[in-house]
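Hi Q.,

Before the meeting this afternoon, I wanted you to have the 2-acetamido-2-deoxy-beta-D-glucopyranose prediction in hand. No need to reply - just skim if you have a minute. The sequence and ligand are here:
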Amino acid sequence: MKPQFPSTQFLSIILSTLTIIPFTAAVCECGYVLTTTNQYFTHTFTNNFTGLPDTTTGVNLTRSLPDWEIQEYKFAADKKTGILGRQNAMSSVWIKDGLLHLLQKGYGANDTGPVQVAELQSINQNFFHGSFRARYRVVQVKGATGGSVAGFFLYYDDQNETDIEVLTKDGDRAIHYTNHPSYEVATDTLVPGAAFTHQLARPWNEFHEHRFDWSEGLSAFYVNNVNVLNITKNVPTHEGKLILNVWANNGSWSGPPSSNDVYMDVEYILMYYNTTDSAAGNDEVFNRACEFAGGNEQRGTVCYVTDQAGNSSVDSVMSLDAPVEDAAVRVGGVQMTTLLGVVAAVVVVIGIL
Ligand SMILES: *[C@@H]1O[C@H](CO)[C@@H](O)[C@H](O)[C@H]1NC(C)=O
Ligand SMILES: *[C@@H]1O[C@H](CO)[C@@H](O)[C@H](O)[C@H]1NC(C)=O
Ligand SMILES: *[C@@H]1O[C@H](CO)[C@@H](O)[C@H](O)[C@H]1NC(C)=O
Ligand SMILES: *[C@@H]1O[C@H](CO)[C@@H](O)[C@H](O)[C@H]1NC(C)=O
Ligand SMILES: *[C@@H]1O[C@H](CO)[C@@H](O)[C@H](O)[C@H]1NC(C)=O
Ligand SMILES: *[C@@H]1O[C@H](CO)[C@@H](O)[C@H](O)[C@H]1NC(C)=O
Ligand SMILES: *[C@@H]1O[C@H](CO)[C@@H](O)[C@H](O)[C@H]1NC(C)=O
Ligand SMILES: *[C@@H]1O[C@H](CO)[C@@H](O)[C@H](O)[C@H]1NC(C)=O
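Predicted structure with the ligand bound:
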């Protein structure tokens, strides 16, 4: 059996249970329509670090991040090219004050070992199309030389990868959007149309919601729910996993590692997505929950998410009806956080029963 995000399965089970209680309306069992792009996805997932306990006080981090695997793998150094080794470390990932922190530990002028870096990979490896969002900032401690790469990306292999990356050496507003392959080793040239640099309106050391939407033939990039760039070249065609990391290896992309600490501070990760199974209509858990709720013709089994350009997804409106032309006069729409709050409250009540 392919791994799934347990929280989603849990939600599906809870939601299908709810439908046998007559006074409870169906809620999103059959998926989500993003009204601004008119794309439909079967699943959603939120990891909200606000409110999670500080792991610096001895709370088990692995248990706080059940949907993610904290990496401990190492890349070897290459003396010939000057590439430094890098070591992903458990101690470079922690939760404090409602933020998930990933760290490239400052690499001093006299350091000779691997650069200590951080990486989180989703346990789910079968994302197949989706809208992937994370609200974060990147902070390089002042007075540093060198830099670091902070990445939020989808990965299967070097031929199926979509990246959002901050390179701290490139100025405080530059952000890189890439589909791989973006470089032709044989001819030593860039692949036209596969890599772009976008200038943010505000520096990346302030919180932004960074987002990429992956659908067939299109990678669309967003900042605070504004679509700032599209890439149609080398759009992944294979299922993959989601990764967040901070790293440097003295190579040409990262440059020399930052001499001071570099942090990626994440407030939440939120996504709407299909899996390989659900995209093909073969996700039995999903199909059963949807059917049990009355199928996708039943009001409320499909939810409509209207993201607000310029705002984070916390301000998105979730509705049980397709929106009418003028969103301002729409009835029945609720702030997403309100709806999630109601679902959470019902879950708590069910738990008590
Ligand atoms: C995270 O939780 C906080 C506090 O409950 C809430 O204000 C915020 O809207 C939540 N964010 C998301 C993305 O759910
Ligand atoms: C933390 O929890 C994980 C998963 O439950 C477990 O495998 C690990 O041993 C725990 N680590 C510590 C230090 O308790
Ligand atoms: C980093 O790479 C350069 C070559 O690009 C090399 O001269 C330098 O020694 C390397 N730095 C370290 C710390 O190995
Ligand atoms: C590096 O080593 C030299 C010689 O021992 C010392 O003078 C210098 O202060 C060290 N630099 C750092 C950043 O530790
Ligand atoms: C991206 O593609 C979508 C779908 O074709 C289009 O509606 C949108 O305007 C494009 N965005 C940009 C920034 O070109
Ligand atoms: C993605 O992976 C598939 C299967 O390995 C491969 O055929 C394809 O070329 C890769 N890249 C893209 C952009 O489709
Ligand atoms: C997601 O999967 C469903 C099938 O369950 C399909 O109808 C839909 O078009 C897929 N969404 C995207 C954006 O590929
Ligand atoms: C956008 O965000 C601002 C600041 O959080 C908030 O005051 C405003 O109501 C939001 N607008 C919408 C349309 O959600």
